[in-house]
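Holo prediction — magnesium ion.
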Amino acid sequence: MVDLLPAQSHSWQKVESIALEHFSRAGLQEIRTPIIEQTELFSRSIGENTDVVGKEMYNFEDRGGRSCTLRPEGTASVARSIVQHGLLNNGPQRLWYQGPMFRYERPQAGRQRQFHQIGVEFVGLASVMSEAEVISIAWDFLNDVGLNDLTLELNSLGSNEDRNVFKEELKNWLNQRFDLLDEDSQKRIKVNPLRILDSKNNSTKELLTEAPSLSDFLSDESKTRFDYLQELLDNLDIPYKINNNLVRGLDYYSHTAFEITSDHLGSQATVCGGGRYDSLIGELGGPETASIGWAIGMERLIILAGDNILNTKSPDFYVIHRGEKAEKIALNISRKLRKANLRIDLDYSGSSFSKQFKRADKSRAKWAIVIGDDEVSKGQLLIKKLRDNAEGERSEEYIFLRDGLDKLAEKLIDK
Ligand code: ATP
Ligand code: MG
């Protein structure tokens, strides 16, 4: 498990505020579900034979003898909550969520045992248009965060019927080449043959270039849907790449599946994964309900956003002060300016002016407000620009205190 340290939390807050803003503008509402669910929720919805349920979940028995699980993803919980509270009686639900998820995986860059997802779910919407909208919300959000060197990969998994026919065909083909497969893939043939298409093993990958393709097994209806989605994305100027081997790890997907990937993440290349899941709500005891959604991994997003995001979080003013009278004014003026929505760092050290100036520089504030007892007795304070201008000078000016702190605050806000 990983701590989020103060140096990193700024970027997280920034991403979260962009998310809130972005999703509100798209008319989505937030849903917050518990971190612990009954194990059965995940084994039924995600599927017994997936990696997540088979190998990665944190399960425990509570004091009442119930099998509980730290949620490994958000969609199943959101679906459960929608069914439990009859939210569909109010019409289709367009929701977003965020929070920690837990999977017992081998930790490495971009892969943790507690990680965080931001996700979107459109529940009760069957149209291809809703798919284009869901994808564009992900694409534009990632753009808002400053990521633009990304690839959208797209596939159609067809209907359940299309997929079942294909699965049998694929199984036969793989069984004929059983000895050529890596060990993991050999195990998967029986339980989850589609997942083999997603294998990271090089010789298996090579072999699979000859394998039957799901795209040849799509019904006319599935094909028409997929073609129309591409037309809508073209219309939105969102570039994509068709990847017929993109199957996604969870059982509940059908028709559209997509991932957004980056070349800058090493082998943990996927930032966002999503797709249509029309049978999940029914599976959980609700009415048959067409749905589509995605989840973005926050850690990977933050790695990619890097300093683009960080740079924007520096204070407007750093308040430097020395002496008892100065201290009182410093506290007061900081509070006033914060109420006026300015970002203020206040020095608490009482150390020399030169040390406080060093800290002010380090804070990357735009201005320092300097209050010494000397200034106070003259009824003024000094503001000094901390970033050099082109000539290497730091402009400074005195502002009078005698008009009162409110007036002073107004002048500083103008800066
Ligand atoms: P991967 O193939 O990388 O294991 P996945 O298919 O298991 O991904 P999803 O279940 O689709 O992932 O989750 C959506 C996103 O959540 C991923 O694209 C990734 O960004 C992030 N994610 C998934 N597992 C982890 C993890 N263990 N640590 C950090 N981020 C993760
Ligand atoms: Mg995984």
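READOUT: The chain is about 40% helix and 20% strand.
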